[in-house]
Structures are given as structure tokens and as C-alpha cells.
Amino acid sequence: MNPLDELALILGDGLVTDRDIMEGYRRDQALWAPGGWPIAVARPASTAQVQALAQWATRHRTALVPRGAGTGVAGGATATDGCVVVSFERMNRILAIDEAAMLAVVQPGVLNGELKAAAHERGLWYPPDPSSYAVSTLGGNVATNAGGLCCVKYGVTSDYVLGLEAVLADGTVLRTGGRSRKDVAGYDLTRLLVGSEGTLALITEITLRLRRRPPRATTLVATFTSLEASGRAVAAIVRSVDASMLEIMDRTAIRAVERFRPLGLDTEAAAMLIAQSDAPGSAELSCMQAACEAAGGTVIATTEDESEGQMMLTARRLALTAVEQLGTVLVDDVAVPLPQLPEMLRRVDAIAAATQTTIATVAHAGDGNLHPLVVFDGKDAAAEARAVAAFNEVMAQALGLGGTITGEHGVGTLKRGLLTRQLGAASLALHRRIKHAFDPGGILNPGKVIDS
Amino acid sequence: MNPLDELALILGDGLVTDRDIMEGYRRDQALWAPGGWPIAVARPASTAQVQALAQWATRHRTALVPRGAGTGVAGGATATDGCVVVSFERMNRILAIDEAAMLAVVQPGVLNGELKAAAHERGLWYPPDPSSYAVSTLGGNVATNAGGLCCVKYGVTSDYVLGLEAVLADGTVLRTGGRSRKDVAGYDLTRLLVGSEGTLALITEITLRLRRRPPRATTLVATFTSLEASGRAVAAIVRSVDASMLEIMDRTAIRAVERFRPLGLDTEAAAMLIAQSDAPGSAELSCMQAACEAAGGTVIATTEDESEGQMMLTARRLALTAVEQLGTVLVDDVAVPLPQLPEMLRRVDAIAAATQTTIATVAHAGDGNLHPLVVFDGKDAAAEARAVAAFNEVMAQALGLGGTITGEHGVGTLKRGLLTRQLGAASLALHRRIKHAFDPGGILNPGKVIDS
Question: B49 with B9: CB under 8 angstroms?
């Protein structure tokens, strides 16, 4: 039997070979990562189908490229020629929300926002909030160990994953972790899979810890005439309170927003800081205000009102969209130790100057995690080359400051080259041996994260 | 050259072969795990010496058994015949405390309590607090992913490990993670090593995240006439506040303490709950009080005074020592999903009755993590056999309730048999392949966690 006919027997109408439909499955949001042509898109509806699919792929030595909603920005879900894209869109059910145990069990295709909403109805909260949360899947969030704005106080995706069901390359079903909040039985395979970008196993079920709904947040916005001053404010805030959000936008980002939607922002400020606290009372807010002022900043507004606070976040939320009005955008993602934040911001400015590119930066400042947004004219090949150079130089400079080439977006295809530099030979060799322990035939998302 | 002479060249006076001294390195606190005889104890003073030691061990196919302070209770540091015990007592320096980055870099032999003290001096805090914290090493804490009383709010050791330096079996130096708070570059090797109990690599340096010092805690003690009622109170507290401590002692534990040191405890209570909140103000304390009363408990005392609060923890802190007055103690360690806590407590009572043993239970109730303390007459072989049966049955019952055989102590040698049952064949096979990826010759802590 023809391999694709075999696959049709496994997947039924979950098999797609129509090129027009497949076109939508060739890339994620890393638009400049070249997308290959899959021979098919598989849309399994059950763990059993994923198992059969893995066995099929192993038999036919065909690569499987797992895919959530395709919102990744590092090329982790980019199709390779001759692969089968595995879309989890049909495995999209919330299987359980256990209120007493404060956990949820979901299939990988459930949207982050869907779980947030379902938890909210029960007085519970799923914190991780990548900016794509309304449209990205939990499977993708787990595969990339997605972060967001809440991380500064509430941690990243891996802090919420209690257990996984996953299908190995040979079709074996693996279960890791469980429903206990503490568990040290054996190696931490759960966290080894989280962030492995589909290279080790196909995640088919996720058990996620939930929290109580957080109290209402108070909000503060301040501006600074220098990057150093904003860095001092961030440092002081981190040392004195548990901010539930602590973001910075640089001048280029502020100006892009003000041009896109006039909000009356101070377009001469070097940086704008947006912070929230969800501690009871207003003591943390006062403390953050004092920290900004002591650092030489100007506190523009504070509020204890939640909806007013939401308004004050508008500029931050609009930043990417606003910057995208300026041209094609490469979204970079690096993190540095906290004290290096102002220096990293300065270096990003220097890179923009040196490469004659526009770079707007938004940062999860409280985590030292920056997103330099490199803007270029998508129709100008020379401009694109300069932008790519800037994108790579941002990572190199982050490494130089003791940081990482990716804080929350992942390595995918775009950052593979610099990963080698960050990890070094010993770690990379070990990565390959671990990859081999999971996927000896190299069928799972080959060419992503590491060359296997 | 004789292998031991070779080793002497590597280690100088860091090599011990005197049997009287080696006697102290044969076991950890899992006293009933039979300790073999090492051919030597190595006390390396540097990463370079650890490297040379690993190369030596690989050449001579000699097992290395890493050891912190020997405070483990699962037999993870038990010597095997013919091995070399690797004690990190000379690698005991705090290399850096970076106040601005809020992190510490330590050698593995630093005591948890030493780091806590050094951090405290700088207004910082290293939260993980296994009850051994004053005498256990950070290397051991990392190797076992140690927990403690703070976990309910502040997480376990792995939540604080930003990066590691470790020596592989072949002497390769591996660096994982770094100084960034967020980092998704490559597989999470840091967390794969945390909790691997010395079976994957020899940890030579640890980068640990620090927090701000927590605010003063308020404290509450309540008693309950039934385990169910105490379980309801725990559930209500977890749903309504972020308790910074949430412990339970059962009647047997209460009575043991009262016999050891009369504190006026209610020896008829089925359970005593000890809770703290370090949120500002007294709102959480009031909330916890209301939750206890609504569950049918009697609130014995509350205080917003820190030293008075410390007094109120006396019973909890004395529990293990008090129970040890009753006989030889096997310290068990299981965790269950939160709603199963009262049922697990009931089953422990049933196991005590069925095996004619005394079992006192203390529990990190807010995490669903229980320590049933099985007491027996150490001179009575039949009693010991019943105690071991009880110890194993506790784990079996935890598994039956969807829990884990170990919440924070590790698998070591004592829990290996049941690990197979918990993980299943697929996971176990993968554990072996991962072990092989790190340590193909099987020289690192063989026979611990898994049979390799």
C-alpha cells in the first residue's frame, strides 16, 4: 500500500494532502524561516491516532513536524520538505478542571485563552500569558516553555506543568509526573519535554496547575530620561516588592505607538516603565512610585482601579502592532542577568545604529527579558540582510553580557547557530545523546533546536 | 601504578582509605539501607580534581557515590562495595552573592543554612528549607530536589536553580543554564540534573536564585476532631490565601511531642494544623482562622508576633525528635493530590493497625506531602519486617490515590522497587536510555533510583 493511503486509514478525514490547505501549515510566525512542502498534514483526533502516526513515520522514515496554532516566532513549527505536519487542532478538549486539586487536564490543542476562561469561571487562574495567549495552544506553549508578562511574579509555563502524556517516536505512550504538587520520583522528564520544541516527543495531554485568581492589580506608569535611570528603577522595584508586571518600552517603541495611536505619550522619554502590583493594599504601589522617583523618573500615573490600569497598559499592548506599521519585523528575544538590563538596552541602540536598522525594544524588565523588534523594508534584500545581522548581533551581545539567546520564544530554526555558541560542545553533545535516547531515528521535528 | 596510588596523586590528602574514617561515609540517614565498604573516600577540592577523579573512575570501572552531608533518608548516598565515595566537604565556598542579580554561586559542599545566613546579611533569602537545612549541603539539596516547609508558597529547590556546573562520568565539564531568570535555550538540563540523585553527573557548582527577605509571618494553630475536618480546612485555606506554611500533625505525632516535651497540646485532637501567612496585614490570618472554624476546627492561638509564632511551631519542629524517642523510625515521604489528603491520612492509620506498627504523621499539608514516621523496635527483627511492610504499603496507597512514592526525599535505594510501579515500563526504559546518555559505563551512583 502507498504510505499516504496507509496514513489515510489511520487518520480518516484527519489527513490533508490538498496543497491549498497545506499552504497554511508550512510556516509559523517566523516568516523569514523558509517553509518547506509537507507531503501531508495530519490532524489526529486521539492519542491512539498519534501513536499510529508515529509508528507509521518510523516505518517510513518520515519527519513529523508538530504544530499548535503556528504562532511561534522562532521557526519551531516550520515544515520541512517531505515531512508530515502534525496539527493538534482536533485534540482541543479541556478534559477536566479539578477545582479541589486546583489543576486542569487538557489536550494540546486547547487555546491558552480557553483554559484561562474556563478556570476563571471556577474562581481559578492559569497564569502563563504569552502575548499570543488568545490564539496560541497550550501544546505549543508547553513545547516552547512560553512566558509572558506575568512571569516576573508567577513564573513561566514549566512552573505550571504537573504532568504530561506524550507519544515517543516509536509510538510508545509515555506518562510523566502526575497530579501531585511535589514529586521527585525519577528524573524530571516533564521539564525535559517542556521547551523541547517537539524534538523529543509528541505531547498528547497536559496536566496544569492552576492558582487562585489574583487580587486586583494596582498600576503605575513612569518615564525616564535615560535607560540607566529606568534600569535603576527596575532594580529597586525588584528588590523591594513582588511586582506582578514590570515592563519597559524604549523610545523607539514609544514613538511607534504614539504614531500608530496618539495616546499623549512622552515621545522624548528614553524609556517608559509600566508596573503592576497585585498585593493587597497600596503599599507596593507606593513603594514602586518611590523607587521610580528615586531613580530620577517621572511617575505619569498611578491607579488602584483595575479598568483604569488596563487602559494604562494600552501602549504596551499596542507596541508590536504599532512597530509592525513601520515595516517587516523580526521579533528577537534575549534575556540577561537583571543588572545588565540597561547595558543591554544601550547595546541594542548601538546595534541599530551600526546596522542602519530601526529597533524598537519592549522588555519584561523584571525578568531581564528583552524583545528587540528589528524593523526593515521587506522588499529590500539589503535591508533584510542588515536586519538579520542586527537580529543575530542582539543575541551575540546578550551572550556577551552573560545572558541567553532566548528567554521565552525558543530556538526553532532561527537561533540554532547561536545555540551552539551559548551551550558549548559538551552540552551540545549531550543534547544530541538525549535526542537520540528519545528519537533514535531522528523523525521528530528534525533540524529544530539542534542538528541531530 | 596501583589505582589507589594514582588516585592519591590526583587528590593528595583528599584521599582517605583509613577504615575508621571511612566508616562515617558508608551510609546516609537511611539507616536500614545496608552500607557497603568503599575502597576509598575522595574529598576533591576543585572541579579539576573531580574531573580527574571521574576520568580515573571511568578508566578503572569504579563506581563513584557522591555525598553531601549524608543527611538523605532514602539511601541515595549509601556506599556500595568497592566504590569510591565522593564527599564534597572541601568544596564548601560561597563563590559569589550578586545582590543586584539576586543570585548566589556556591560550591556543592556549602550548607543550606550557611547560604541562608549569608543571604540574610544582604537582605536576601534562600527559601528552600528541608528540615535538615542547618546541616545539609546545597549539593545534596540539589541532587534530591529537597523541599521543606516553605514549598507551599515558595516552591522547591529546583525552582531556585538557575544553572549548574557538573562533571560527567567521562570527566567532561558541563555547564547548564546561567544567570538569566528566563532561559529556554536548549533542553532543560538543569532540571534534569536536579533530583537525579548523583546518577547523571557530579555537581561542582550551583547558581541559585535568591528572593527578597519575606515579610514577618503571622501564625495560627488549630485542632480538629477528625482528619476529614482538617482536610477541609486545608482545602479551604489553599483556595483562599497563599499560606507561607501549612502543616498538619496527626494524633500520634501530637502525643509523641506532648510525651517528649509537655506543651499542653490537645492529645485527643485527631489533627493539629499549623499555618503561617507572610502577606502584609492580618487579612490572610483572619481568612485562615475562618476557614478552620468553618471546617469545624478549634483555633487554639493566632499571633502576628514573629517570635510568638516561632514558639507556636515548636510542636511541629520537635515532631521527628519526639517520635524517635518511641523507637527506631523509618521516615516515609509520599505526596497525593490535595483532595486526597484526608483519605491518605486515614489509610496511614489503617496501615498502622494492619501492620501493628505505630505511625505518626506530619504533613506539608498545603502540598499534599506526608511524612508517615513508622516506629519500630530496632532490636526486633519481626517488628522491623512489619515496619518495612508498612513503609512500602504507605507508598502503594499513595500510588492508589494518584500520588507519588516520594514528594521530596528521593528514591535512593529504598524506593527503587516501587518506582518501577509508579513510572511504568515506558518511562523506566527512557530513564535507562537517559542514564546511558550521561553515563554509558554506569559508574555514577549505580543502583540508585533505577537499576542501570
Answer: no
* H helical segments located in A61-187: 112-121, 138-144, 151-154
Interface test with B, best of A182, A213, A433 (most B CBs within 10 A): A182
Q: Could you tell me the fold of the domain covering A215-314? A: Alpha-Beta Plaits (3.30.70)
Report, in angstroms and rounded to the nearest whole number, the Rg of chain B calculated over CA atoms: 22
Closest CA to B358 of B323, B382, B392, B395: B323
Interface predicted TM-score of the whole assembly (ipTM), two decimals: 0.97
Contact map slice: B 106-145 vs A, CB within 8 A: 123, 144-145
Distance CA B452, CA B443 (A): 10
Neighbours of A9 (CB within 10 A): 12
- Dist CA A217 CA A224 (whole Å): 23
Residue with cell 509510538: A171
Asked if B171 reaches chain A (Cβ–Cβ under 8 Å), the answer is no
Q: Min CA distance, A285 vs chain B (Å)?
A: 13
Q: What is the residue extent of each domain of chain A?
A: 3-87, 94-212, 215-314, 326-439
CA distance A429 to A435: 10
CATH number assigned to the domain covering A3-87: 3.30.43.10
Put simply, whether A282 touches B (Cβ < 8 Å) is no
Q: Partners of A250 in the beta sheet? A: A271
- Residues with Cβ < 8 Å from B301, sequence gap 6 or more? B219, B220, B221, B312
Q: Which of B168, B235, B427 sits opposite A186 (nearest CB)?
A: B427
Q: CA A174, A178, A183: angle at the middle one, nearest 5? A: 115
Question: Smallest Cβ distance to B336: which of A159, A180, A240?
Answer: A180
CB nearest to A188's CB, from B195, B335, B338: B195
Residue B278 zone, left/alpha/beta (φ > 0; ψ -120 to 50; rest) = alpha
> Top-level CATH class of B218-400?
alpha beta
> Given this chain, do its domains A215-314 and A326-439 carry the same CATH topology?
yes
pLDDT, one tens digit for every residue, chain A (452 residues): 899 999 999 999 999 999 999 999 999 999 788 899 999 999 999 999 999 999 999 999 999 999 999 999 999 999 999 999 999 999 999 999 999 999 999 999 999 999 999 999 999 999 999 999 999 999 999 999 999 999 999 999 999 999 999 999 999 999 999 999 999 999 999 999 999 999 999 999 999 999 999 889 999 999 999 999 999 999 999 999 999 999 999 999 999 999 999 999 999 999 999 999 999 889 999 999 999 999 999 999 999 999 999 999 999 999 999 999 999 999 999 999 999 999 999 999 999 999 999 999 999 999 999 999 999 999 999 999 999 999 999 999 999 999 999 999 999 999 999 999 999 999 999 999 999 999 999 999 999 999 86
Q: Cα torsion at B370, B25, B207, B166 (round to 10°)?
A: -120
Residue A135 grid cell: 490564539
Q: How many CB atoms lie within 10 A of CB A96?
A: 12
How far from A96 is each of A100, A120, B42, B93, CA to CA, in Å?
12, 14, 51, 48
**Sequence letter at residue B125:** W
Classified by CATH at the fold level, domain A326-439 comes out as Alpha-Beta Plaits (3.30.70)
CB-CB contact of A114 with A88 (8 Å): no
* CATH class belonging to B94-212: alpha beta
Euclidean distance between CA atoms B240 and B263, whole angstroms: 30
Q: Contact B244/B276 with Cβ under 8 angstroms?
A: yes
Residues of A (356-375) whose Cβ lies below 8 Å from B: 364, 367-369
A121: exposed, middle or buried (Cβ count in 10 Å: 0-12, 13-18, 19+): exposed
CA separation for the pair B76, B198 (Å, rounded): 8
Cell of B163: 544553572
**DSSP label of A215:** P
